[in-house]
C-alpha cells in the first residue's frame, strides 16, 4: 500500500504501523529512520512524536532529541504520558511501551 499510494495521507499512517512492527521485531535502526521521516510528513501528529521520543531515548541514547519530540507530543495530547493509554488504546507493541516507560521514568 505504502509503495503504490504515496500521495495518500493514509499511506503515512500505514508507514507508521510498519515502523511500529519493525521496532517490535528488533529492526530498531530502520524503525527509527522511518519514524523520523514520518515525523516530518505528519508533523503535529502526537503519536509519531511520542513513539519517536521513546525510541530515541532507549535506542539512540539521545535524551535531548527525545525530550523535544515528547514535548511536541504531550503539548498536543497529554495522554502520551500515560503508559496504559499507549498500551491499551493505541495498541503499541510491548517493546515500544517499555522504551516509553524508560523515558518517562528518567
Description of the structure:
The protein is mainly α. It has one domain: Alpha Horseshoe (Serine Threonine Protein Phosphatase 5, Tetratricopeptide repeat), CATH 1.25.40. The chain is 73% helix and 0% strand. It contains 6 helices and no strands. α3 packs antiparallel against α4. The chain starts with 8 loop residues before the first helix and ends with a helix. This is Tetratricopeptide repeat protein. InterPro entries: TPR-like_helical_dom_sf.
Structure at a glance:
With 106 residues, the protein is mainly α. Helices cover 73% and strands 0% of the residues.
Taken as a percent bin, the fraction of beta residues is under 5%
**Helix-strand string:** HHHHHH
CATH class: Mainly Alpha
CATH topology: Serine Threonine Protein Phosphatase 5, Tetratricopeptide repeat
Oligomer: single chain
**Shape, please?**
globular
Mean pLDDT: 93
| Helix-strand makeup class | mainly alpha
User: What CATH architecture would you give?
Assistant: Alpha Horseshoe
From the alpha carbons, calculate the radius of gyration and give it in angstroms.
13 Å
Amino acid at each position: 500500500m505504502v509503495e503504490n499510494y504515496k500521495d495518500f495521507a493514509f499511506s503515512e499512517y500505514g508507514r507508521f504501523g510498519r515502523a511500529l512492527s519493525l521496532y517490535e521485531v528488533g529492526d530498531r535502526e530502520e524503525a527509527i529512520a522511518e519514524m523520523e521521516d514520518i515525523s516530518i510528513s505528519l508533523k503535529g501528529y502526537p503519536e509519531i512524536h511520542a513513539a519517536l521520543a521513546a525510541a530515541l531515548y532507549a535506542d539512540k541514547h539521545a535524551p535531548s532529541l527525545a525530550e523535544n519530540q515528547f514535548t511536541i507530543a504531550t503539548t498536543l495530547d497529554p495522554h502520551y504520558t500515560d503508559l496504559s493509554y499507549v498500551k491499551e488504546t493505541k495498541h503499541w507493541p510491548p517493546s515500544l511501551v517499555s522504551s516509553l516507560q524508560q523515558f518517562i521514568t528518567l
